[in-house]
Design brief:
The chain is an alpha+beta fold and about 270 residues long. It has eleven helices and ten strands. The chain has a three-stranded mixed beta sheet.
């Protein structure tokens, strides 16, 4: 991969759409759509741009299989409401120490009454402050405070907060985002979810083909403009090779296995 540009195959993910006539031949040939952007641009910043590009060509999928870099609570909502696309990929887990402890004191252990704008903690105490605000990224959030008089004498305080004097505080996403994340986290460990997400191996294969067959990680030129052009031409070349393989009925190559993995399989046989 170039030090200057990041290259995403099939616009960052593998798309599933109802196969309209205009799409059939392209899907059969495993043709991809691609984008190239400066390497410092975060993956999730590209998701709306990716969908804009697909929408212009009437190629938006019903379900877009993505890796976690292209997802996020806000994007789950934006993609569904703006583009009619369901993002399907690993939702980012709650990384708080309370969630890692698994004792019921992370956000999922609190009862949120969105209409009353209150939160009830696992011990039954009700919050006293509910303050909407925006993060530095511009996302809607809600700051929640509990009363010091409730938290200070609480017998399970050490499981809920590490603050020495202050009561428990929470930061919530906006309601629609909160619900979308909760639903995504609830299903991503099921077998049916894993089976569907396994389809995304096709895009990993595309990236592998670009790296191994087209030396994508090596920039032949200096400068962003030339590097971007190299990526565009590489994408065209991949699609041409795939069209040729489809037209000539060339069988798919087997999965590449590291020689140590091959030895392990042989030893287990």
């Amino acid at each position: 991969m170039s030090a200057h540009h990041a290259f995403a195959a099939l616009l960052g993910g593998f798309g599933l759409a109802e196969p309209a006539a205009a799409h059939v031949s392209a899907q059969s040939a495993n043709v991809g759509a691609y984008t190239s952007t400066a390497a410092q641009v975060a993956d999730n910043h590209m998701t709306p741009a990716i969908h804009d590009g697909l929408a212009e060509r009437d190629l938006l999928p019903d379900v877009h299989l993505i890796d976690s870099g292209y997802a996020g609570g806000e994007l789950l909502v934006i993609s569904r409401n703006t583009y009619g696309v369901d993002l399907f990929g690993p939702a980012r887990e709650d990384c708080s120490w309370q969630a890692k402890a698994g004792e019921g004191f992370d956000i999922s252990g609190f009862t949120i009454d969105w209409d009353a704008r209150t939160v009830i903690c696992p011990q039954g105490e009700t919050s006293i402050n509910w303050v909407p605000w925006r993060t530095k990224a511009g996302e809607e959030a809600i700051h929640v405070d509990f009363a010091k008089g409730d938290c200070t004498p609480c017998p399970v305080r050490s499981k809920c907060t590490r603050a020495k004097r202050e009561p428990r505080q929470l930061t919530l996403h906006a309601r629609e985002v909160h619900d979308a994340l909760r639903q995504a986290r609830a299903v991503q460990n099921t077998e049916s979810w894993k089976q569907q997400y396994a389809l995304r191996s096709g895009i990993e294969g595309t990236i592998s083909q670009a790296v191994r067959g087209f030396q994508l990680r090596r920039s032949r030129y200096l400068g962003l403009a030339k590097t971007h052009l190299q990526h565009v031409l590489t994408a065209v070349a991949i699609n041409l090779v795939r069209f040729d393989a489809w037209l000539t009925a060339t069988p798919l190559a087997g999965t590449h296995r590291h020689h140590l993995e091959q030895l392990q399989i042989a030893a287990a046989a």
